[in-house]
């Protein structure tokens, strides 16, 4: 971690930069895979899975027998933990449901919004050694609460053609019925175009490697929506004398272990604090299985001493972190100043791991500065808000003359005429 | 308008297709303009405006004198009409503000969302003969309610270097202070990268021609968000014996006059109704100034007789119209069945023009089938929802063991350790 003591404001912009990665242009690769899926459908998926995942599948769909086997493989303790997390995530997202409010904007003119779940949603869960069953909860639970009719989960099989049991257990727990063994570009292609087995969806959610990310980007050109632009995970911690250095160090490391392109930023008002935290990081690193990844991520990372907590918040707003841990006793006093962040953790006990797994908030959040213009995943992400209006004879008489004038000023005379005809009939 | 009598369900999918337009690949053109703007900033804007809009500007910014001149040019009647519309739009969008709700998901674990306006937003208003001052209201009012700090409006000047007075009057009325004379790709480039005069924004809103649409698409690759994918405007009307044929005809025409790529769809349960409406369309067309545009749009349009209102709604959900006019007396009984639509107009007096201008609902809506996966513009579009959590010592003791188990199962040991350290301290 590089440290900077009281950098000039003119240097701040440079200090908010993310580690740049050579963006490989994968568009052609994606379009080639998509073209094959449009023609050969299921057979294309089976072929790509054999090629990329080194397993020849007989069936793309996970069977109920496989679900039962998965259940038997999970300890009761882990089941209870997952259930607690699911319950908290459900509680937090359930209150995001809005009530229909009818507004009479002018007498006789009633307007309101109704909420409908997006009918068909796809959830992508990456494979690999660390099975992200927590993401299954974060995406599957709001989909269920939103009333999405079809929730389809795709995740790549291992070389034995199996899905990790924690993913199957979790998906089953929250009621996802359609689980398919397909990953990478081909999974996104299947969700975009549909095959004999996998239904086309309206919106695709979930994290993934650079191929999945590129495929989601391209899928948008074929009428599918996606959750948000993807980027490496990141945390910014604001610490002062009231912070506990070993907790801060642990929080920074829990971000750094995600991958070498993760970024951690430490802001503090106190040079001594930064030294103590770096010492703690080095101690804790020695026992971490993913220490190598974390060490490389820390090379991209910055510890910055600033003059005040206000300055730390101003820097944080400029950086717009995915996660902001505000590890100070008085953190709550500064909430109104926090403008750009995905998710905020206040005080010494609100560690990022809590939000990653079990406190109830969603862990699918905007990265790479997108917290300036995007929100994290919530119930909203699975819902459409449709406006309705019911105008009475009195209502059109009240607003009709204004519409006629405005339509005429925009030179849209058919728009005007639609009102004039009605008003004339009401004059009789 | 082509008519179809009771088409088979297998034909429905084809009947929901939009008029295909040869999508010109404008990406290179956009990138060239963007590259020039990044280097030459204001000078590039002035040069492009001279080239495309045929006017050499001395200043990009609209002056307060120009605003005063515009005010003097608008009739009092039109001012009052705009004020009525603004008031209704404000009423409808103001109630979309959510209250902060703190949820204790587990004892000691408090989670909530706070709402922050996107700091910098850009509004694009096209030029041309029909000045879309109504769109200024639809985008500027929710931006103001959301608390966006900087709202920047760009619109192309005419050959005299002027902006239409209705746009200036409207923007000024709702408090937009920064209005710039720049249109097309160069306006989107200026909002994306910033120049000496025009500030870079976080999100760009507004309609435009194919160049503007392409530029907004490309801008997304540079960290800017956009309101939604753009497409030609469209309406679907469901009519039965309780509908008034001349009103339905007027509503279909008010959509068709937008442009030759607009689409109108008429669904009805009654063959006689469709004939009466087509007769009315032909009568009304004779007196419309934009009859030629409307006539061409009608060539892409369809009148379809179906067996029941339920079938009409099922077809409408498949088509997912931007505007759905449900011109039947019993329309309200069917609201729960409406799943995919941008904005819905119920009964004989709720004409689309009302929502376009003055009822209060937003007219920036998803087209081209995107009502399946996108909502129209609302207060949400100008807001970020940030999750917060505050966990007490008791809270982390309650959920900590679950987090440890889940992190371990995902093989993320630093995530686990962040909890373990805290729990160990609390055991002492």
Automatic annotation (TrEMBL), chains A, B:
Cofactor(s) recorded in Swiss-Prot or TrEMBL: Zn(2+)
Catalytic center residues: 322 (proton acceptor), 323 (proton acceptor)
Highest taxon in the source lineage: Bacteria
Residues that bind substrate: 233, 255, 258, 323, 356, 410, 415
Pathway: Amino-acid biosynthesis; L-histidine biosynthesis; L-histidine from 5-phospho-alpha-D-ribose 1-diphosphate: step 9/9
Gene from which the chain derives: hisD
Keyword terms of this UniProt record: Amino-acid biosynthesis, Histidine biosynthesis, Metal-binding, NAD, Oxidoreductase, Zinc
InterPro entries: Ald_DH/histidinol_DH, Histidinol_DH_CS, Histidinol_DH_monofunct, Hstdl_DH
GO molecular function term, any single one: histidinol dehydrogenase activity
Cofactor note: Binds 1 zinc ion per subunit.
NCBIfam families the record matches: hisD (TIGR00069)
Name this polypeptide is given: Histidinol dehydrogenase
Assigned protein family: Belongs to the histidinol dehydrogenase family.
């Amino acid at each position: 971690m590089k440290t900077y003591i009281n950098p000039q404001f003119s240097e701040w912009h440079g200090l908010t930069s993310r580690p740049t990665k050579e963006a490989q242009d994968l568009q052609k690769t994606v379009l080639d895979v998509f073209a094959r899926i449009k023609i050969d459908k299921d057979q294309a998926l089976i072929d790509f899975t054999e090629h990329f995942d080194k397993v020849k599948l007989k069936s793309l769909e996970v069977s109920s027998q496989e679900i039962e086997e998965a259940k038997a493989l999970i300890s009761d303790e882990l089941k209870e933990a997952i259930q607690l997390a699911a319950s908290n995530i459900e509680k937090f997202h359930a209150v995001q449901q809005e009530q229909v409010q009818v507004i009479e904007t002018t007498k006789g003119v009633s307007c309101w919004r109704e909420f409908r779940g997006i009918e068909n949603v796809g959830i992508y869960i990456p494979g690999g050694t660390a099975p992200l069953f927590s993401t299954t909860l974060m995406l599957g639970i709001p989909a269920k609460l939103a009333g999405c009719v079809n929730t389809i989960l795709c995740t790549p099989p291992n070389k034995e053609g199996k899905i990790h049991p924690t993913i199957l257990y979790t998906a089953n727990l929250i009621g996802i019925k359609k689980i398919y063994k397909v990953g990478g570009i081909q999974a996104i292609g299947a969700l975009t175009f549909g095959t004999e087995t996998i239904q086309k969806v309206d919106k695709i959610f979930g994290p993934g490697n650079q191929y999945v990310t590129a495929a989601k980007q391209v899928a948008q050109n074929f009428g599918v929506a996606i959750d948000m632009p993807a980027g490496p995970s990141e945390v910014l911690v604001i610490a002062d004398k009231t912070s506990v250095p070993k907790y801060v160090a642990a929080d920074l490391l829990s971000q750094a272990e995600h991958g070498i392109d993760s970024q951690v930023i430490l802001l503090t008002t106190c040079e001594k604090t930064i030294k103590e935290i770096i010492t703690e990081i080095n101690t804790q690193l020695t026992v971490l299985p993913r220490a190598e990844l974390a060490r490389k991520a820390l090379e991209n990372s910055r510890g910055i001493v600033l003059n005040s907590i206000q300055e730390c918040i101003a820097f944080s707003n400029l950086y717009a972190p995915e996660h902001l841990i505000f590890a100070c006793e008085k953190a709550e006093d500064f909430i109104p100043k926090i403008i750009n962040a995905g998710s905020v953790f206040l005080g010494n006990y609100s560690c990022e791991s809590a939000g990653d797994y079990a406190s109830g908030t969603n862990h699918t959040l905007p990265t790479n500065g997108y917290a300036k213009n995007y929100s994290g995943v919530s119930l909203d992400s699975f819902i459409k808000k449709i406006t309705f209006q019911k105008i009475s004879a009195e209502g059109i008489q009240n607003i009709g003359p204004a519409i006629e004038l405005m339509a005429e000023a925009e030179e849209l005379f058919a728009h005007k005429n639609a009102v004039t005809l009605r008003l004339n009939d009401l004059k009789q």
